[in-house]
Amino acid sequence: MMRMIMVKKRFTLRAGAFFAVALGVFAAGAVAANVLLSVFAFVPANSMALVLADSMPVFSSAVSDDAESLQLAKISRVILGFDVSEPRTILQNQIASIKFGIGLEASGPQPTDAAVPTELPADMKPVIALDMHPDGGEGYLQAGGVMIKNHTTYTPDPTELLAQDLSFNLKESGPKVLITHAHSSEAYTPTDSDFYNPSDPSRTQDMRYTVMHVGEEMAKVLNDMGISTVQDRAVHDYPSYNGSYKSSLAEIQKYLQEYPSIRVVLDVHRDAMQRDDGTRLKDVTEINDEKVAQIMLVTGTDQAGLSHPNWQSGLKFAMKWQSVMNSDYPRLTRAIDFRQERFNTHATLASVIVEVGSVANTLDEAVRGGKYAAESLGKMLKTLI
């Protein structure tokens, strides 16, 4: 037994020395980081744990598997973004190029291991659920029950727009709808059954828990209804959030070139609403006895300086879609957000941002909302085929 302890200590010291040298080498850049991770793959996790425990007190308390340590590990995943019981997640979280080198293939991020159910920290900020469907009143452009929150100095006539036919048809063969995500990693509030490891606050590279999953479910609904739909699954907001719309636009243009039959582009996001005290807000209604995230359509203009000559076509499309949703599911929608910024709503005559719920909604609520919105869209588009 004493010999085994000595061998273990010698291995730990050697691993510790290697670890220190490797961190120095790491400064050479991302290539060195990937090499380092490849080597670590052969170092047993318990040996790495002993090395880190010598220098990180908080880590040493989580090396054991008692109940208190397991609870600490769960809390660390939510608050700190890493698991103190798993050494590699600490390195990935604290050293940017290691994080960048993990899980990113040429085709995009690969799913991580299945989500582990976890208890959420008791001190998480509270969530307030609000029904944000507008019931009329001042401050809106409105026609036929469709409400528009106007953030521009333009004064479109909503009654006239709603009465007009859409500016396109779907008679050409091939895909009709493209679903994309400029902010691919936007995630929802984790629950005991839907837990993810965050890459940034309220974001994750595990696309099973982001707006990309919501878009995937919307695409299924449309395809099942006979509306051929494709989804852009590239990640545009990681590792850098800046330039995400530019990156997304480049991908949209590739799809439009490959499939000139595409007429509708849906950029699926989720909103982020939080009060000054940290209280998080979620927009929610109830359909078929289930909680459902509400839908906000966002349309852009050229008022911020970027060319968008057909912005009225995009607004008309959003109004008509919202009118169908209001008829199908009366409290599913929020007011259309009519903006000065263009975003990527100039890509086609029917390109809009679709905000499905907010950061405080659960993934299940968002999926339900996305499906209901897609059903109404499919119903409207089938009249154009």
Fold and architecture overview:
This protein has 385 residues and is of the alpha/beta class. It has two domains: 2-102, no CATH class; 127-384, 3-Layer(aba) Sandwich (Aminopeptidase). The chain has helices at 2-26, 30-40, 45-55, 57-60, 67-79, 87-94, 96-101, 158-163, 211-224, 244-258, 311-328, 363-381, and strands at 104-105, 108-109, 127-130, 141-143, 146-150, 177-180, 229-231, 264-271, 280-287, 290-293, 295-299, 336-338, 350-358. Strands 4-5-12-11-13-8-6-7 form an eight-stranded mixed beta sheet, with helices on both faces. It has a three-stranded mixed beta sheet with strand order 3-9-10. A two-stranded antiparallel ribbon has the order 1-2. Helix 1 (2-26) runs antiparallel to helix 2 (30-40), helix 1 crosses helix 3 (45-55) and helix 9 (211-224) runs parallel beside helix 12. It is globular and about 50 Å long. The relative contact order is 0.13.
DSSP strand content: 15-25%
CATH class categorisation of the largest domain: Alpha Beta
| Structural class assignment | alpha/beta
Mean pLDDT: 77
Low-confidence stretches: 1-122
CATH-derived architecture of the largest domain: 3-Layer(aba) Sandwich
| SSE pattern, N- to C-terminal | HHHHHHHEEEEEHEHEHEEEEHEEH
Q: Care to count the β-strands?
A: 13
